[in-house]
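User: Fold both of these, please.

Assistant: Here is the first one.
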Amino acid sequence: MKKIKTVDAVGHTLSHDITQIIKDVKAGVLFKKGHIIQEGDIEKLLSVGKDHLYIYEMDENRMHENEAAEILYDACAGSSNAMAATAVHEGKIEVIARARGLLKVDTQRLYQINALGNLIIATRHNNTVIKKGDKIAGTRIIPLVIEKAKMSAVTTLSTGVPLLEIKAFHTFKVGVITTGNEIYHGRIQDTFTPVIAEKLADYDLQIDLHKVVPDDVEIIKQTIAEFREQGAELILCTGGMSVDPDDVTPTAIKAAGAEILTYGAPVLPGSMLLIGYFDDGTPVLGLPGCVMYASTTSFDLILPRILAQDTITMMEIAQLGHGGLCLKCQACTFPHCEFGKS
């Protein structure tokens, strides 16, 4: 930046906002950053005590904020048809979803880019369910001009692979196996299956296959096999997920040939969730009883990833423990939430 006398500033560009405060009348921006100073502006600037101004000098080593913002957007979205950019303004571009799906964020590269300084990319949380029209990221260049070398570093870090991806939800043929002697023998009403149907409906899915079975390893195992023969692409087993000896659902799922990714997740409610896969990639989930009454559980965190055919690792399951105690929202809205207020 270069310091010049205000009386000599006509034609130059302001490098920062100029504030004007008039008691009981006004307290706000007189001229915004990027304003090109006109002859009639001089007296106004002097009236707010600006005898000198700092202006940016453009050269071959710097670029304007708007040009640099385009680079940030490209790092976020690349040529993806699932995202769109707002018009660039004051070094800012927002990334808008053009389709519903699961938002994936490469957080490690995001952190590296933001650590460069004088620029920002702010995104929604990784693995958030988003809908068409949602704002999923915002970009901004902080100064009016920025070093070209810094923007070259952004391009290098983006490596031609966008930081953001929207994975579409797929259509699944869903089979639900309701376990429990109390339901099988008609002692109580099945209130679990309607909850599952409602959650699936949020993704335009329905229960295609359903059977109520007793707490019997062989029967549950056979039912899983039957569902697979009938083309089930996602199998959900409800109930019987505790460590009580009478709760045999996990044993039956394993006996049916599924490879268990995890039996247990560091999430409350929903710590007894089971996630498994068969050799052909068909997922099978054992759902803990809390899914029946809690609005958001581990199942609600995992289901969209299953439906987006997103690979889930054991490390990612472990990482759910950070924030796994408050599940009022699929993505954190603190402090604009009700956490701790009820």
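And the second sequence with its predicted structure:
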Amino acid sequence: MSAKKNALPKVRRTFYSLYVKRLLDIALSGFALVVLSPVFLIVCILELIFHGRPVIYKTRRPGKDGKIFYMYKFRSMTNERGADGRLLPESERLTRFGYVIRKTSVDELPGLVNILKGDMSVIGPRPLLVEYLQYYSSRHAMRHCVRPGLALERITRTDSKTWTWREQFENDIYYIEHVSFVTDVRMLFAVVRAVFRGSEYRANATRVAFDGTNLDETRGQDEVGVVKHFASLE
């Protein structure tokens, strides 16, 4: 691996990243919550029909500087458990309705509340599991130097159709090194396009869990045959 890939990234700190970005997050999330309130109401009703209560699912995630917060999402799965008392694999709990809201990213809408509160930003590295913190290299841990985002599309292009952990983390690093108003606007449009296209990859959520050794793994859980349980998801 090259020295550049091992080097710690230099977080870009500008007037925009330090002040303007947060003000835009407040304005955009507040506006979106008002405009999308009918969508929230409809999804809440459908959640009660397909999944029951609670309507909102919350999970512990690391935010800026690794500070733990509760991220909110609409539920896309049931709470069915096996004989051992643990939640069944996601593939067995994902409902048809859950598949649709995952594919269209509608399940992420409650995250607007996290943005308004200051836990997250509209654009930034996705908040991953708390359990992953122990596995990050010093370089990849730098993804927590900024607020996590509701979305961050690919900035650095590759020929691969998969989204390996290394590709995602390096994409995050590129973002924190180049964050700007122009970059965020481009990302926002990219996210809107992705929502309208829908994502089978995200809907199925078959990527293997990160364990510090599988940065370049391209196989899914069904191919690897390993399903891990995490306390932060219980």
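The radius of gyration is 18 Å.
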